Amino acid sequence: MTKQKGSDLLVRALENEGVERIFAVPGEENLDVLESLRTSTIELVLMRHEQPAAFMAATYGRLTGKPGVVLTTLGPGATNLTTAAAYAQLGGMPMVMITGQKPILSEPQAQFQIVDIVGMMAPLTKLSRQIVSTAMIPTTVRNAFRIATEERPGAVHLELPEDIAAELGDEPLVRPHAMVLPVAADAALDAAAERLLAAERPLVLIGAAANRSRLVPSLSRFIRRTRLPFVNTQMGKGAVDGAGDLYLGTAALSEGDYVHDAIDQADLILAIGHDTVEKPPFLMTGRPREVIHVGFGPAAVEEVYFPQYEVIGDIAGGLDQLGDRLEGKLHHDLGFFLSLRSQILAHVNEGSQDGRFPPVPQRIVHDVRQALPDDGVVTLDNGTYKIWFARGYRTHLANTILLDNALATMGAGLPSGMMAAMLDPARKVIAVAGDGGFMMNSQELESAVRLGLNLVVLIVEDGSYGMIRWKQSQAGFTDWGLQFGNPDFVKYAEAYGAKGTRVQRTEDLLPILRQALDEGGVQLVVVPVDYSENQRVLIDELKNRR
């Protein structure tokens, strides 16, 4: 083989893994890699900040099941990746981060800009490793992609020093191979089937790890075959069509919501893909109940989640075999849960037609749902509106609502929407963010315009860190320290070459969203919000029904 630079070998190894694009904020230490990318088949997506670049890479992993790749420089460029690394790691999103470093065979600049990035990333990733020779590159890259992808998916970090990128080598690549996961043991499947057949009011809970595109057919088939009613966690939302008559709601809170009427009445919960990194959808403390955990790996036993039975292995294969054991044998009276369903959904839909201005969050959720087709995508940043979307937004297809209920970081909503729009330009996409979360990565409007994306960004404006302000009020503290001013968002959008629109009347929100989606391009829509419903519904109303 002809010898080639380490950077060329790295890029060839990435091509070997099927990498189509890399999200990047390159630096001096990446110039060899940048030159190698220039003549490769990989698209370079230049971003304005490392954090949203990695948010996009993580979202790519979430939507495709293949690791997204982000490239940054050393020092401050690499430290800016930490939040997104935790986002991918806690959210189960496959991602590979590649950072630069000063030469390691000499120290011509002493310790300038040098931080122990490998050590820093170790607790935030599944693997963090420095490449110390070209001979390492093929196996290290292959291992990084395998580890990032295998269950439970997550973040992997590789550091490529400047002198290793320039070093010559001739190592052969390692061909990727498909991973075939084992199915749960017959004894575990038999025990689960026995408990489900013995239960009087079994209920299915669908969690984050079940919300994978490849699992949707088996999961939907299992619900159809067994006719078991189901609820989902926030990150499990959309894995099975929410329009079906067996959907009882989403557990947006840990207890006390209307959907918990169904959860509390179940004598057995089949928790499919529940991951305890999510805020708990229900608490096992209190009323005794049996829980069967179905997952790729064993349950993490927590104070609020300690299943008595486990079905461990490939979820798709396990559900198909469990369905074989149950189909035609379950004879539960669905009347109880179906009557609860109508009550739960009626309560959740209250306020969706409220005409006051500023609009209440229920109305905003309703109008976003009406504006998008069934396959339209809504991505959420983190704020109080996320609870309202989790409770009230009805999904019909998997991965049509993207929210983060694991790290629950602000700043991810816009780059997540950009990634969804980039992957499928024909789909309608709305990124919803509060004014606080939007401004954390608002510079990426320039990237969205430059990339020619079709994306509507809906800013829910209240001039404060609203979620924390609400919690401050609940705790009985004085309303202090959490309010801020905003730029003129319409002019702000126009300065980036996008179109900006401010909603002046509640009845205008839906037509403005529809027009923005139809026009295409990057559209920023600003709507004020009346968050008094947080206290009235989520606190007072739910407290009074206990």
Please provide a written account of the structure.
With 546 residues, this protein is an alpha/beta fold. It is built from 22 helices and 20 strands. Strands 3-2-4-5-7-6 form a six-stranded parallel β-sheet. It has a six-stranded parallel β-sheet with strand order 11-10-9-12-13-14. A six-stranded parallel β-sheet has the order 16-15-17-18-20-19, with helices on both faces. α1 (6-16) packs parallel to α7 (137-149) and α3 crosses α16. The longest helix has 15 residues, at 50-64. It is globular, with a radius of gyration of 24 Å. The termini are far apart.
Which features characterize this protein?
546 residues; alpha/beta; 6-stranded parallel sheet; 22 helices; 20 strands; 39% helix; 17% strand
Short description:
The chain is an alpha/beta fold and 546 residues long. The protein contains 22 helices and 20 strands.
Helix content: 25-40%
Distance between the termini: 73 Å
Low-pLDDT sequence parts? none
Q: Mean pLDDT score, rounded?
A: 94
Q: What's the story with the biggest beta sheet?
A: 6 strands, parallel
Strand order of the largest sheet: 3-2-4-5-7-6
| Rg calc | 24 Å
Bulk shape:
globular
What is the topology?
Layout: E1 4-5, H1 6-16, E2 21-25, H2 31-38, E3 43-46, H3 50-64, E4 68-72, H4 75-79, H5 82-91, E5 95-101, H6 117-121, E6 127-130, H7 137-149, E7 155-161, H8 162-166, E8 168-169, H9 186-198, E9 202-206, H10 216-226, E10 230-232, E11 247-250, H11 260-265, E12 268-272, E13 290-295, E14 309-312, H12 315-326, H13 335-349, H14 361-371, E15 377-380, H15 384-392, E16 401-402, H16 413-423, E17 429-434, H17 435-440, H18 444-450, E18 455-461, H19 466-474, H20 489-495, E19 499-502, H21 509-519, E20 522-528, H22 532-544
Parallel strand pairs: 2-3, 2-4, 4-5, 5-7, 6-7, 9-10, 9-12, 10-11, 12-13, 13-14, 15-16, 15-17, 17-18, 18-20, 19-20
Antiparallel strand pairs: 1-8
